[in-house]
Write a structure and sequence with these properties.
Helix content: 40-55%
Number of domains: 3
Structural class: alpha/beta
Radius of gyration: 23 Å
Number of strands: 14
Number of helices: 19
Largest sheet: 8 strands, mixed
Strand content: 5-15%
Distance between the termini: 56 Å
Oligomer: single chain
CATH architecture of the largest domain: 3-Layer(aba) Sandwich
Bound molecules: uridine-5'-diphosphate-xylopyranose
Shape: globular
CATH superfamily of the largest domain: NAD(P)-binding Rossmann-like Domain
Strand order of the largest sheet: 3-2-1-4-5-6-7-8
Length: about 425
Amino acid sequence: MHITMIGAGYVGLVSGACLAEFGHDVVVLDKDPAKIEALLGGRIPIYEPGLEKLVAENVRDGRLDFTTDLNHAVSRAEAVFLAVGTPTRRGDGHADLSYVFAAAEEVARAVTGPVVLVTKSTVPVGTGAKLREIVRRIRPELAIEIASNPEFLREGNAIGDFMRPDRVVIGVDSERAEAVLKRLYRPLFLIETPVVATAVETAEMIKYAANAFLAMKITFINEVADLCEKVGADVHDVARGIGLDGRIGRKFLHPGPGYGGSCFPKDTLAFARTGQDYGSPMRLVETTVAVNETRKEAMAGRIIAACGGSVAAKTIAVLGLTFKPETDDMRDAPSLTVMPLLAAAGAQLAAFDPAGTEVARPLLPAGVRYAENPLDAASGADALVLLTEWNEFRALSADRLKTAMRGDVVLDLRNVWDPAVMREAGFRYHSIGRP
Ligand code: UDX
């Protein structure tokens, strides 16, 4: 099939490359000539394991192309995917749909035959209906069908998530659109991936409900972890003890400094706003948003308390800046809340991240010393804080860290180290929800 992907961002690139890998002919369009030029030269503007290789192979085999020319991009398309950004709108927390609507208008003007216009971007319930109005107004003579096909890709694992998903959600309002999308995902049905074929509004709702539920689950275990600390219980055993109940499930019960990233913060906020708009408040989601925000701030307070109530003129080393491992994405990363608060309290900061330093640098307080490796970051520090659970931090030698540091305080906000080992090495070791 011939497919166009509008937007060479994270979702567009991963989805475009994976659909090409399925055997389709995919053209990915972006307005940014520098981005397209880089992609044509084999350079991938984001860090995602496996993506560079997948793109290179599919370009080589002639199934994947990049362009800034919309007419060229859609000339043979049977399906056009919208994978443009839907950031949080300034001021009110709604999703900003201006890029989605602008792209839909341009596509409607450019297409030359019947086509299915599919939203991949996360869009609030009702967006599909608005898109339908737009394309009908611009091209009343053409059969342009609207569909919603939300993605559930985790950064760092996106290719695996696309190739072996738990399910494919297809929101359609015509048999033709359903047939086109089912043909597109045929390779997944051969491996018996369940498909949820439903109305467009329902598909839009599924995406928000899924992300809000996962964000709620994380926030729940975070609060349970705090209570565990007070009563002397171990949150990991609690998570396992409840997660083995199939109705609850074991995933997304790992406590930490609060969720971040490009999806959960933005989507929970937008979902809560939709609820308010329709007079059907999503109170659990609203509370999740608020609890997660205060949690990131509370992490700074926790660090200051562990340092004896003041970090003035103390050196704090931070390991991990990105919102999670295996990405250079800094969007809503806990480091963006925690580090400015520590700097404002007078701390000197050193930091190391395996992939995110360049993205992080302009976003973090001036004066942070960016180290070459974890031991270099810890060198001379009074306290060490682990914010992101990159694998390379797991195997660090506690003794070597201790020797490098001046002080003895460690805050492991992802529970990657063994408390007994850390105490043995002479650390005053703090983790989340463990006695
Ligand atoms: C998420 C969803 O998983 C994906 O389906 C959706 O399409 C986009 O948003 P992503 O943001 O890439 O993906 O990362 P994810 O692995 O889900 O983690 C999100 C945040 O939750 C991270 O900050 C992570 O550290 C945190 N998290 C996750 C926890 O704190 N505990 C957990 O148990 C799981």
